[in-house]
Design goal:
Layout (H helix, E strand, L loop, with lengths): L5 H13 L5 H16 L16 E3 L5 E3 L3 E8 L4 E7 L4 E5 L5 E18 L2 H11 L6 E5 L3 E4 L5 E3 L6 E18 L5 E3 L2 E2 L4 E5 L5 H5 L2 E7 L7 E4 L8
Parallel strand pairs: 3-15
Antiparallel strand pairs: 1-2, 3-4, 4-10, 5-10, 6-7, 6-8, 6-9, 6-10, 7-14, 11-12, 13-14
Helix pairs in contact: 1-2
GO molecular function: metal ion binding; oxidoreductase activity, acting on single donors with incorporation of molecular oxygen, incorporation of two atoms of oxygen
Protein name: 2-aminoethanethiol dioxygenase
Organism: Gryllus longicercus
C-alpha cells in the first residue's frame, strides 16, 4: 500500500473541515486537526523549488530575468477551500489585506516572516468610534495586535472571521515561503450580491486620543493594490493529491 504524503493528509482534512456541514463544535474539532497537521508541513513535504526564493533566474542568454516580489504556487482550489504556497523574496511583503468571512492557516516552510495582524472591532463599536473620531464611514476600526515573528520551526498561525482577519506579511533577513490554507476562497460569494474580494488597507493612528492609543485601536482605510506589490505563479511540483 502506498503511503499517504503529509500534504495529502492536510488536503484531505481541509476537505473534511470546509467542504461539509458541521455543528460549531464539530467544525472547531476538524479545524484543530487541520491546524495540527499543518504544523508538521515542511518545505521538503511540498518539494519546494529553492530557485523560486532567489531574485533572478538564469536564462539561455547572459541576461538575468528579475522576478516579481511574490510567487504563488496553487496546490488545490475548489468552491470550499484553496491551498497554495506563497514565496516572498528577500525584503518583500504582502501588503495589509483582509479575508472577508474566511478562516485561514499559515505555516512557514522556509525562512522567517513578520506578521502584523489586526482584529476588526464589532459593528456597534465601529459606529461609536466613527462619531468619536469624526473619521467618517470609510474608516474601519481595528485592534492592532503585537508583531509576531515566525519561522519554519514554529506552529502554524491561524486567522478567523473575528481574530487576526487582516494582516501584513514581511520576509525577514532573506526570502521565505509559507503554506496558505483559506476557506472559502477569494472570489466566492459572500451573499447573493457580494463577492469575496481581497481588499488592501492603510493604517492611520489615532494619536490624538490617548485612551484609544493605549488600547492599540487604529483606523484602516481601503486603498488600491500598492504599486510595489505584484506576483507571478509557478507550478506545483510536490506529491500528487489523490
Amino acid at each position: 500500500m502506498k503511503m499517504v504524503s503529509v500534504i495529502e493528509c492536510v488536503w484531505r482534512q481541509a476537505l473534511h473541515t470546509f467542504a461539509r456541514s458541521h455543528t460549531v463544535q464539530s467544525f472547531e474539532d476538524h479545524f484543530a486537526r487541520l491546524k495540527a497537521l499543518a504544523d508538521s508541513v515542511s518545505a521538503n513535504d511540498v518539494k519546494l523549488d529553492r530557485c523560486l526564493l532567489e531574485w533572478t533566474s538564469n536564462s539561455n542568454s547572459s541576461n538575468h530575468v528579475r522576478k516579481p516580489p511574490v510567487t504563488y504556487i496553487e496546490i488545490y482550489e475548489d468552491h470550499a477551500v484553496t491551498i497554495g504556497i506563497f514565496v516572498l523574496r528577500s525584503g518583500m511583503r504582502i501588503p495589509l489585506h483582509d479575508h472577508p468571512q474566511m478562516h485561514g492557516i499559515l505555516k512557514v516552510l522556509t525562512g522567517t516572516l513578520k506578521l502584523q495582524s489586526y482584529n476588526i472591532l464589532p459593528a456597534v463599536e465601529q459606529d461609536t468610534l466613527r462619531r468619536r473620531t469624526a473619521m467618517g464611514r470609510n474608516a474601519i476600526f481595528v485592534e492592532k495586535l503585537p508583531e509576531v515573528y515566525v519561522s519554519d520551526s514554529d506552529p502554524a498561525c491561524v486567522l478567523t472571521p473575528d481574530e487576526g482577519n487582516l494582516h501584513e506579511i514581511h520576509s525577514v533577513d532573506g526570502p521565505a515561503a509559507f503554506l496558505d490554507i483559506l476557506a472559502p476562497p477569494y472570489d466566492s460569494s459572500v451573499s447573493e450580491n457580494e463577492e469575496r474580494s481581497c481588499h488592501y488597507f492603510q493604517e492611520r493612528k489615532l494619536n490624538e486620543d490617548r485612551t484609544l492609543r493605549n488600547k492599540n485601536i487604529v483606523a484602516l482605510f481601503r486603498i488600491s493594490s500598492p504599486s510595489d506589490f505584484w506576483s507571478d505563479s509557478a507550478p506545483y511540483t510536490g506529491p500528487m493529491l489523490r
